[in-house]
UniProtKB/TrEMBL annotation:
<dbReference type="Pfam" id="PF01592">
    <property type="entry name" value="NifU_N"/>
</dbReference>
<feature type="domain" description="NIF system FeS cluster assembly NifU N-terminal">
    <location>
        <begin position="9"/>
        <end position="91"/>
    </location>
</feature>
<protein>
    <submittedName>
        <fullName>Iron-sulfur cluster assembly scaffold protein</fullName>
    </submittedName>
</protein>
<dbReference type="GO" id="GO:0051536">
    <property type="term" value="F:iron-sulfur cluster binding"/>
</dbReference>
<dbReference type="InterPro" id="IPR002871">
    <property type="entry name" value="NIF_FeS_clus_asmbl_NifU_N"/>
</dbReference>
<dbReference type="GO" id="GO:0016226">
    <property type="term" value="P:iron-sulfur cluster assembly"/>
</dbReference>
<dbReference type="GO" id="GO:0005506">
    <property type="term" value="F:iron ion binding"/>
</dbReference>
<comment type="similarity">
    <text>Belongs to the NifU family.</text>
</comment>
Amino acid sequence: MLDDLRDLYQEVILDHGKRPRNFRQIDNASHHAHGHNPLCGDQLVVYLAVDEAGVVQDVSFIGKGCAISTASASLMTEILKGKTEVQAKQLFERFHAMCTGAEAQSTNGPTDDGLEEDMERLEVLSGVREFPSRVKCATLAWHTMTAAIDGKDQISTED
């Protein structure tokens, strides 16, 4: 089973790393932020188009980073469309906990949030917890997305 997950991890990283989804700038973005990982030099900008009800209508990113960083950003953009800002933050908390091996500390609503299927999709990135220096690569886009929602222009993985 572990070998199957490792193979899937490599396939997903390669696919999304070489052909990232939603790699573009959103002209009518209501939120955006620049993220930087000084450890490896990854940089990206996350764009969100959020409607009046707080629902993510569109999400994208541009930037330059390693395969893990790019794949994570690509997966994130696929998953966040149609989610509320609260759900986006819940996904970040759960994804971050999964990548670090920590217990999720949800401060953004109930834990029975209907996001299990999304977390199953993200599980292919859970292998980064075996390589602590790569956790920041996998979570950069997610940190940047939460910064954008919170109205911050930029964030660093060293903050």
